[in-house]
Design brief:
The structure is a homodimer.
Chain A lengths: L8 H18 L6 H7 L4 H7 L3 H25 L4 H21 L13 H27 L8 H21 L8 H23 L6
Helix pairs in contact in A: 1-2, 1-4, 2-3, 4-5, 4-6, 5-6, 5-8, 6-7, 7-8
Chain lengths: ~210, ~210
């Protein structure tokens, strides 16, 4: 019981990191709580003190990855002035993140409705955060007169759904999981072109005809 | 054996139509070849003379529906001069067709990779036909100076993939099959807006800034 005596933030982080490694190599299904405890020289009881089950630990890993990705995106956005370039970079960064998640086995083709509620929740939370981020980019472009969108949030929803849709069909057309370099390049080209046309659409002015 | 004596085009059409009705009401899985034969007062042997199995009959039904839909689209395209309006109408017509297929149980969420090869073949054939159609619309707009796309076929692939992606995620977010009027209206609004921005993107000219 001595492990329980000292619950710390550091231990929490260490557990999440160890789980992230195991999940990354073997997948969440083939990883047991005992293995993660062993990796850290923790008792199983100690591990369960932090996380009641593997699902909650899995959720914590996903949330950590999401926070890291959103942080990277925010830095990228903050370092850039042109909202059109910013949106285009968002499309490609988002695809890189998707690729990482697919290759780690975090995402598989099939219905969102199949996800466990706890995991679905983190995905929905992530989506609302990225929506806020992209709305911010479009709003900035609208205020500076680059974009003509009446409703920045609506345009952001469309932009994100278009990207998500293109990723979704790329995944559904394939039998095997994992995205190779070649496939990634192809998909990135496709998504870049779509994003580019969409961004031009946001910049379109009628008098220009 | 007398039924086999007179294989005709009319009988073929009657079989496809009877199967279409049964598949529409009960779904392909819950329909037997015997039921279709009974509907037409045909012997089972007679029916098998025309179609070796249910899958081939199912394929014929899908191909009939596809041909009808493509015919309707072509008429719509031919009756219209403005390629921008034409593309936008395509997006909505395509969604109506999708709704019909979903409500008939012809499409379910999940991987294309799960489809039987025979059925996948008809979907791919359909896709290459609609690509040809949409390429034609964009090429017309390009020649008349409305669209700025360098490659009409590439732009058509993007346009169709965006529509398909938006349909795909709309389906994957839901547990139940079938699309209600309300859901259709929402999705149609969403797809219209996306198509509109994309079309403006095709019309965008740099000097307009």
């Amino acid at each position: 019981m001595k492990n329980l005596a000292e619950p710390t933030e550091e231990k929490l982080d260490a557990i999440i990191e160890a789980a992230q490694k195991r999940f990354g190599i073997y997948g969440a299904e083939k990883t047991s709580m005992r293995e993660i405890a062993n990796d850290l020289h923790l008792s199983k009881a100690s591990l369960y003190y932090y996380f009641p089950d593997k699902e909650n630990l899995y959720k914590a890993v996903i949330e950590k990855e999401q926070a890291e990705f959103l942080g990277t995106l925010q830095n990228d956005i903050d370092s850039m002035n042109d909202p059109a370039i910013c949106l285009k970079r968002y499309a490609i960064n988002r695809l890189s993140y998707f690729r990482k998640l697919v290759n780690l086995g975090r995402i598989s083709p099939g219905s969102y409705a199949d996800l466990k509620p706890l995991i679905l929740e983190t995905f929905l939370q992530f989506r609302s955060r990225e929506l806020k981020m992209v709305t911010g980019i479009i709003e900035k472009g609208r205020k500076s007169g680059v974009f003509t969108a009446k409703d920045s949030s609506e345009a952001a929803v469309l932009f994100l759904d278009i990207l998500r849709g293109l990723r979704s069909i790329a995944l559904s057309d394939r039998k095997l999981m994992g995205i190779s370099d070649k496939e990634f390049e192809e998909l990135a080209g496709h998504i870049s072109s779509a994003a580019e046309i969409f961004i031009k659409g946001l910049m379109y002015r009628k008098q220009n005809k």
